[in-house]
Amino acid sequence: MVRLRKYIFTDLDRERLRRWLETGEEDDSTRNLFVLVRRELPRLTSDLDLLVRASKKLRRENRFDIRMTLPKEMGRIVTKLKNLKP
Questions:
Q1: With the CA atoms of 24, 25, 28 and 29 taken in that order, what torsion angle do they form, in degrees rounded to the nearest 10?
Q2: pLDDT for the residue numbered 82
Q3: What is the pTM of this model?
Q4: Looking at the predicted structure, is the pLDDT value of residue 40 above 60?
Q5: CA dihedral in degrees (16, 22, 24, 28; nearest 10)?
Q6: Which of 16, 23, 43, 69 is 20 to 30 A distant from 59 in Cα terms?
Q7: In whole angstroms, what is the distance from residue 1 CA to residue 44 CA?
């Protein structure tokens, strides 16, 4: 059976990152998350690009249910990730 994960970050990871983005507050767990983000960013960026390209092709071929369209913001996120400098 083929499975696609439905998330990148856990709820706790999201909470930590949002808190850091909003307040600058960080702890050891947040710093460990930074390490993982830096290490996995190339693969995540590539996977997001692949996801967007596959969804566009499915739409062109009328194989993508209209109710399941990806948010427009996802395309912007992929573009921003591609433009990040190491």
A1: -90
A2: 75
A3: 0.63
A4: yes
A5: 0
A6: 43
A7: 22
The answer for residues whose C-beta is within 8 angstroms of residue 13's C-beta and 6 or more apart is 33
Contact criterion met (CB below 8 Å) for 82 and 48 = no
Q: Tokens 């710093």, residue? A: 31
Burial class (CB in 10 A: 0-12, 13-18, 19+), 18: exposed
Helices (H), 24-86: 28-60, 72-82
Q: Dihedral (C-alpha) 24, 26, 31, 36: value to the nearest 10 degrees? A: -70
Residue given tokens 């692949």 in the structure block: 50
